[in-house]
Design brief:
There is one protein chain. The chain has about 150 residues and is of the alpha+beta class. It has a single domain, classed as 50s Ribosomal Protein L5, Chain: A (2-Layer Sandwich), CATH 3.30.1440.10. It has 6 helices and 5 strands, in the order βαββαααβαβα. The chain has helices at about 25-35, 65-80, 80-90, 90-95, 105-110, 135-145, and strands at about 10-20, 45-50, 50-60, 100-105, 125-130. A 5-stranded antiparallel sheet has the order 2-3-1-5-4. A hairpin with a 2-residue loop joins β2 (about 45-50) and β3. The longest helix has 14 residues, at about 65-80.
Length: about 150
């Protein structure tokens, strides 16, 4: 399932991806699994944990149109048809007032080379920033075009 042309990329200003790496996880393995989605270098931040050991917050900011297009292509190729359809059906709940589309994926499944949506727990949060001057209905239409 290929990304249908470069026109839709113009409707995305940025893709942001966030995840946490816990002390019990192999950081190199986690970061390597994310490369199935993007080659962009992340920023890393150490955060105090409630339970003691520090955890790392990893953030990717994809801004160049060719990198956004590549990310969307990879996301669509790894996403099951069932998950894609469920995301498309719930777009109204996934797009905020600023035009950001939120999708959460299982970090553990990505380590196995699979991309599965997940609502909570050990997730990778993807925020697709749709062009902000569009109206709410237009955001939903754009998101459908991108993910269909």
């Amino acid at each position: 399932m290929r990304f249908s042309g470069s026109g839709n990329v113009k409707n995305i200003s940025e893709v942001e991806m966030e995840l946490f790496i816990y002390p019990t996880e192999d950081e190199k393995k986690v970061l390597e699994s994310v490369k199935t989605l993007t080659e962009i270098k992340p920023t890393k931040e150490s955060i105090e944990s409630y339970y003691g050991p520090k955890i790392k917050k990893i953030t990717y900011k994809i801004k160049k149109s060719r990198d956004i297009k590549s990310f969307i292509n990879k996301l669509k190729s790894l996403l099951s048809e069932t998950d894609r359809n469920e995301i498309l059906e719930s777009l109204g709940d996934r797009i905020d007032s600023e035009g950001k589309l939120y999708i959460r994926f299982s970090k553990q499944d990505l380590l196995k080379g699979k991309l599965k949506k997940q609502y909570s727990g050990d997730i990778i949060l993807v925020k697709i920033h749709l062009i902000s001057y569009q109206k709410a209905d237009e955001h939903k239409k754009i998101a459908k075009e991108i993910l269909a």
